[in-house]
Amino acid sequence: MEGISGQVAIITGAARGIGAAIGKRLAAMGATVVLTARDEARLMQLTAEIEAAGGRAEYEAFDLLDEAAVERFAAGIQQRHGRCYILVNNAGVGRMGKPLWETAPADWDAVMDTNLRGAYLMIRAFAPMMIAAKAGHIINISSLAGHNPLKNGAAYSASKWGLNGLTYSVAEELRDYGIRASVIAPGSVNTGFGGGSSGKNPSRKIQPEDVANVVAMLVTQAPQSFVSEVLLRPTFKP
Ligand SMILES: NC(=O)c1ccc[n+]([C@@H]2O[C@H](COP(=O)([O-])OP(=O)(O)OC[C@H]3O[C@@H](n4cnc5c(N)ncnc54)[C@H](OP(=O)(O)O)[C@@H]3O)[C@@H](O)[C@H]2O)c1
Questions:
Q1: Whose CA is nearest to atom 36 of ligand 1?
Q2: How confident is the model at residue 197 (pLDDT cuts 50, 70, 90)?
Q3: Where does the chain have alpha helices with state H?
């Protein structure tokens, strides 16, 4: 197993939920985690928690929809660290609950721009640093909705089907540089995503830490092989 101690790990959507659990887990493994989202107060709080537990963390609040902000963030990482070994594209929005024909174009755009274009912008910004180092992991958090139909969530489902195609394709573009791109597709996770209450039993759902465990596994693979995708399901139906 390869260690990640001292490596820089960037996580989008790290203010809460799955992204926060991934940040804590990678920091506990010795990485310097860079937490990003829009909510600066929550990022600051999580950074303090990680540091209090003996980890190394920093944060930067920006909107993933803002191309210039993504570029500024990457320039700052290049300047401060000169590298990025792990990039977890986790930020996402749902905007579910309506059939496609009643979905407002603004909601369609928010879903596609966050879930799909956001991952593209981050890879565009950080792949060059990984290519220069000839090493890196890109992990995109998709969903089982990226494999299945999702009634009243067509835009969300389409964004995650798209993210799977993006991941498998960019994995082919980057593997010759020693960079491995993988996708994790969880079922319902116990977070406040999409406003929370789905009527499912929260304790039987997948927990954010379960997704973080998969990230930990992906970033510690031996260098000669990699897992393209993990489909993560609850043991018991919630
Ligand atoms: N929970 C589930 O049931 C489930 C299942 C399968 C897959 N997933 C996927 O897992 C990922 C994380 O979900 P979660 O459950 O942890 O959701 P969450 O608790 O709602 O967290 C979403 C994160 O994304 C950030 N974000 C949203 N829009 C952003 C933007 N424009 N710019 C920057 N950051 C933005 C949010 O921070 P700010 O609001 O502060 O920006 C937040 O930190 C998503 O991609 C989701 O699709 C979730």
A1: 13
A2: low
A3: 17-28, 40-52, 67-80, 105-112, 118-133, 154-174, 208-218
